[in-house]
Design goal:
It contains one helix and ten strands. The protein has one helix at 2-16, and strands at 36-47, 53-56, 65-68, 73-82, 85-99, 102-110, 116-121, 125-130, 133-138, 148-157. Strands 1, 2, 3, 4, 5, 6, 7, 8, 9 and 10 form a ten-stranded antiparallel β-sheet that branches. The chain is globular and about 45 Å long. It starts with a helix and ends with a strand. It comes from Christiangramia oceanisediminis. Pfam families: Lipocalin_4. Residues 1-22 form the signal peptide.
C-alpha cells in the first residue's frame, strides 16, 4: 500500500508540477481532451521480465480528483493513506500542452522562510484511449527494485 501511495503521489506530483506564463503561452483549445475532472482508477507496471502488474486504486486514494481547466489551472484534491488514516491535501498548479500527447505541469511552493521553489515536470506521454480515459505514462523506473519498460496511472473522467 505504501508503494501504491508513493506511485499515485509521484504520478500526481509529476502530473501537477508544471507552470505556464500567460505572456508566451498559446491559447488553450477548450476541446483539449485533458480538460475535465479526473479520478484515479488503475496503476499499471510493465516489467522488463515478467507479466504486467495491474493494481486498482484503493478506496481512500480513489477519492482523489484532478480538475484541469481550459484557462491553464490545475487543482488536485488528493487523498492518500497515511498509517491507516485517509488524509487530504489540496494542491494548486498550472498546465500547458507542449505537443500532441506531451504536457508540462508546474507547481510553486513557498516554505515557512518565504523561499519559493518551482517544480516543472512532464510525463513521457499522456494518452487518451477514449474520451473518458487518460493515461499518464512514464518510461522510467519509479523505484530501484523493479526494472520496468514503462508504467502508467489511468484516470477516468468524472
Amino acid at each position: 500500500m505504501k508503494t501504491m501511495k508513493y506511485i499515485l503521489s509521484l504520478s500526481l506530483i509529476i502530473f501537477l508540477f508544471w507552470s505556464c506564463s500567460t505572456e508566451d503561452s498559446p491559447e488553450i483549445d477548450p476541446e483539449e481532451p485533458i480538460i475535465g475532472t479526473w479520478r484515479p482508477v488503475t496503476f499499471a507496471q510493465f516489467p522488463v521480465n515478467g507479466d504486467p502488474i495491474m493494481e486498482t486504486i484503493g478506496e481512500c486514494a480513489g477519492k482523489t480528483r484532478i480538475t484541469i481547466k481550459a484557462n491553464g489551472e490545475l487543482t488536485t484534491e488528493e487523498y492518500y493513506n497515511d498509517q491507516g488514516q485517509c488524509k487530504y491535501e489540496f494542491i494548486f498548479q498550472s498546465w500547458e500542452k507542449v505537443s500532441s500527447g506531451t504536457y508540462i505541469f508546474i507547481e510553486t511552493f513557498t516554505d515557512q522562510n518565504g523561499e519559493t521553489t518551482t517544480y516543472t515536470t512532464s510525463p513521457d506521454e499522456i494518452s487518451f484511449p477514449d474520451s473518458n480515459t487518460m493515461r499518464i505514462i512514464y518510461n522510467s523506473d519509479y523505484d530501484q527494485e523493479t526494472e520496468l519498460n514503462y508504467w502508467y496511472n489511468e484516470f477516468k473522467k468524472n
